Amino acid sequence: MSWLVTGGAGYIGTHVVRALAAADLSPVVLDDLSSGHAGFVPDGVPFVQGSILDRELVERTLREHSATGVIHVAGYKYAGVSVQRPLHTYAQNVEGTRVVLEAMAAADVASIVFSSSAAVYGTPDVALVTEDTPKAPASPYGESKLIGEWLLRDQGVATADSASPLRHTSLRYFNVVGSGDPVIYDTSPHNLFPLVFEALIEGRTPRINGDDYDTPDGTNMRDYVHVADIALAHVAAAQRLAAGEPLHAAYNLGSGDGLSVRQIMDAMARVTGIDFTPDIAPRRPGDPDRIVASGELAAQDLDWKMRWSVDEMVRSGWEARRTAG
Predict the structure, then answer these.
(1) Could you give the CA distance from residue 129 to residue 131 in angstroms, rounded to a whole number?
(2) Tell me: the pLDDT tens digits for 153-196?
(3) Distance between CA atoms of 146 and 143, rounded to whole angstroms?
(4) pTM of the model as a whole
(5) How far is CA 240 from CA 168, 233, 248, 294, in A?
(6) pLDDT grade for 325, boundaries at 50, 70 and 90
(7) Pick the catalytic residue: 11, 90, 121, 141?
(8) Is 52 exposed, middle or buried (0-12, 13-18, 19+ CB in 10 A)?
(9) For a Cys-Cys bond, which of 153, 163, 183, 204 suits 199, CB 3.0-4.6 Å?
(10) Where is the NAD-dependent epimerase/dehydratase domain (predicted)?
(11) SS3 of 40, please?
(12) Please, are residues 55 and 105 in contact by the beta-carbon 8 Å criterion?
């Protein structure tokens, strides 16, 4: 009995793999290493290098490892770049999810936890996003994640009266930061934490894109959630699916109050010991003042909670990046 983690060699996926192993749920990794790193996969965890678009490979991996279910983390995750690469984004995120579901059906595997995204909401005009907030994705990436949720829903309906009805849930998360292991760090060229870390390491001044937003300090506010907490929520969802316990179709893994970009910058200076005043750059088009989500539903069902302070989130990420050299 095992759980297949697609994208399990990536920053988020490998944290999920470690959390599964700690819970004795026997993870297996499938990753094409387009953005993941083989060195992130823990020793002793089976690793299959390949694409989720390879249906035969996905089905064979599920069968060979007697998979109980799938935690589907693999995908093209760059929202901004997806505008320039919509066909690639849809191939990886929509067709990839369809292929995974088809392989699961063929292998008689009926449980899936889908890594979705806050991008399904677009730029909501509400103080606190809930699971019922209207979906209005603003990028091909956000659209592809919403379609992924629809694929799970529709396959669940189609198999409801079968011997192995699909049981599923989607976890919508926001800005994932920090590190739960000093050998794993965020290598994204687009995320705030690695952008600031690289600037500080190279002796450059980090920048804030706009300081005239309608927020207490003028910089936009977002949910920042620790990657280890995200991983634990995936494990909790997998355990409930395996036990046949009820789950909602989707959960927000949100903080409930959020942090501003300036608060993040202040924490960066405190934790790193590098005193700096961020440069102020123009706003990025389409950046909303605030996107913060409630995590109440996930707290009820998935033991979701914010276990790390902002300084602890920064420190864990900074130490992992410095360990990497």
Answers:
(1) 7
(2) 999 999 999 999 999 999 999 899 999 999 999 998 889 999 99
(3) 5
(4) 0.96
(5) 10, 11, 11, 21
(6) low
(7) 141
(8) buried
(9) 204
(10) 3-254
(11) helix
(12) no
For residue 261, how many C-alpha atoms fall within 13 Å in the half-sphere facing its CB? 28
**What's the distance, CA 8 to chain centroid?**
12
Q: Give the residue carrying structure tokens 């109980």.
A: 68
pLDDT at 283 (0 to 100):
85
Residue 227, pLDDT > 70, answer yes
> Taking the domains of the chain in order of start, what are their residue ranges?
2-176+224-253, 177-223+255-324
Which class is domain 2-176+224-253? alpha beta
On the 0-12 / 13-18 / 19+ scale of CB atoms within 10 A, 270 is middle
- The CATH number that domain 177-223+255-324 falls under is 3.90.25.10
Say what angle helices 11-22 and 227-242 make with each other, to 10 degrees.
50
Instruction: Note the pLDDT tens digit of each residue in 34-70.
Output: 999 999 999 999 999 999 999 999 999 999 999 999 9
Residue 80 has pLDDT above 90, yes or no: no
pLDDT value at position 145? Answer: 97
Phi first, then psi, for residue 109 (nearest 5°) are: -110, 125
Strands (E), 167-268: 167-173, 175-177, 207-209, 221-222, 224-226, 250-253, 259-260
* 293 alpha-carbon distance from chain centroid: 15
Mean pLDDT, the chain, as a whole number?
95
Taking alpha carbons only, the member of 115, 114, 94, 121 closest to residue 156 is: 114
257 phi and psi, to 5 degrees? -135, -30
Which pair of tokens denotes residue 72? 């589907």
In the block, tokens 């864990």 appear at 316
Q: Which tokens sit at 252?
A: 């927000």
Where does 248-316 show beta strands of DSSP type E? Answer: 250-253, 259-260, 279-281, 290-291
Query: By the 8 A CB rule, do 73 and 113 touch?
Result: no
